Amino acid sequence: MRRSDALVVGGGLVGVAIAWGLARAGLSVTLLDEGDRAFRAARGNFGLIWVQGKGAGLPAYAALTRRSADRAPELAAMLRDGVGIDVGLRQPGGLHLCLTEAELERQTTTLRRMHNQPGGGNDWEVMAADAVRRLIPGVGDIAGATWGPHDGHLDPLRLLHGLHRQAAADGVVIVTGVTVETVAPVPGGGFELTAGERRFGTDRLVLACGLGIPPLAAQVGLAIPLSPQRGQILVTARMPPVLDHPTTYLRQTPDGTLLLGDSKEQAGFDDGTTAAIGQDIARRAVAALPALRTARVVRTWGALRVMAPDGFPVYAQSATAPGAFVVACHSGVTLSAAHAFEVAPAIAAGDLSAYADFSPDRFSECATDV
Ligand SMILES: Cc1cc2nc3c(=O)[nH]c(=O)nc-3n(C[C@H](O)[C@H](O)[C@H](O)COP(=O)(O)OP(=O)(O)OC[C@H]3O[C@@H](n4cnc5c(N)ncnc54)[C@H](O)[C@@H]3O)c2cc1C
Fold it and tell me: Which CATH class is domain 2-48+157-226+309-369?
């Protein structure tokens, strides 16, 4: 039986950032990942580091997101210097392009409400169509946009690869192709995990396996209601530079391809694609950036977001099995730096009290209220 100070289940962006952070805190760490059979948001996302609009109703989330975005350059530099992987981070500020006045009004109301909530929100401003045109000369006939100065984007696959390489370089033992089936507290302390014939032992257990969390968390006394939300993404062939700033549903990568996306569907555990949603995504993208009318779509995919009922992250330690933790969120790109640099050290210290706002107790309180 392999034994380590900490076992992290899940090798997506969340799990690997936590595993690396635990290793940096001095623990011996093993990371277990199911591999290609699993749903993997980390391999199908849009690559935004997004701050504006995050945390409406939960100021602690607005603050966490901002701290993470602020430390993204430090994370990118560590991966570049440590394992030679450039994640292509750019944070020039981002836009939510609104095609209609009604959409602009809705977006503005949400951001204003956030700004007024106790604890506040993050910096943002409304931008008139003319001002947007100065940033994006080819923009279509839009009503305006909201602008967030801390927003950016990167290559999420390079981020995932870089984190895996850096974690391994810093001592994390990565075991792939294992599906953890049971996690059991051991009398006297610690946990034992089984995956087929294999067994793993640990003092500290972190469940960070996205949509695979709920059945495992239940075995250590944590009820974590997560569900899939499908997003579809279209990728175009390379084009000359047309978009210097990332937006919520359009971004151009340094090699010239454009990613079009941001659909949100309840499709269960189906991560396929549909022509109808693809058409909606394309129509909206062409309206926002007419140069896309002649773009050739070369690839399309669907992937499943890991969603809590209120859309906020879940950070928790089990009350009945102390030493067992859950880390789940739907913005694992944006929160990578926070996970590695602050959530992992808190887990290493065995104290998540600074993250009480993210406890799953908030769901049982909702249930009681109902
Ligand atoms: C369409 C889409 C667009 C997105 N865009 C953005 C964005 O622009 N910006 C942003 O910040 N975030 C974005 N996200 C979210 C982001 O991709 C995820 O938050 C991030 O990938 C982290 O996911 P994760 O590690 O929790 O889960 P996953 O990536 O799903 O990884 C879970 C891992 O756990 C493993 N696993 C599952 N069950 C088990 C088990 N029983 N035993 C062992 N291993 C197991 C799987 O193999 C998998 O590797 C997007 C997501 C989607 C779907």
Answer: alpha beta
**243 C-alpha to ligand 1 centroid (Å):** 27
How many Å apart are CA 333 and CA 327, to the nearest integer? 14
Q: Which atom of ligand 1 is nearest to the CA of 160?
A: 21
368 confidence band (pLDDT: 50, 70, 90): very low
Helix, strand or coil, per DSSP, at residue 182: strand
User: Do 258 and 237 touch, CB atoms closer than 8 A?
Assistant: no
CB of 194 within 6 A of ligand 1: the answer is: no
pLDDT tens-digit readout, 42-63: 788 999 999 999 998 899 999 9
216 contacts 316 by C-beta, under 8 angstroms: no
Domain layout of the chain by residue ranges: 2-48+157-226+309-369, 94-149, 228-307
Residues for the chain: how many in total?
370
Which ligand 1 atom minimizes the distance to the CA of 332?
19
pLDDT value, residue 352: 97
- Alpha-carbon distance of 192 to 68, in angstroms, equals 32
Q: Is the CB of 140 under 6 A from ligand 1?
A: no
DSSP 249: S
Pocket test for ligand 1, best of 155, 330, 335, 358 (most atoms within 8 A of CB): 330
With a 6 Å cutoff on the Cβ, whether 13 touches ligand 1 is yes
Q: Where are the beta strands (DSSP E) in 24-181?
A: 29-33, 48-49, 94-98, 125-128, 144-148, 152-153, 173-176
Name the region of 251 (left: φ>0; alpha: ψ -120 to 50; beta: rest): beta
The answer to whether the beta carbons of residues 298 and 198 sit under 8 Å apart is no
Mean residue pLDDT across the chain = 94
Ligand 1 atom at shortest distance from the alpha carbon of 10: 34
Residue whose CA is at the smallest distance from ligand 1 atom 13: 331
What CATH superfamily is the domain 228-307? D-Amino Acid Oxidase, subunit A, domain 2 (3.30.9.10)
Question: At residue 30, what is the residue type?
Answer: T
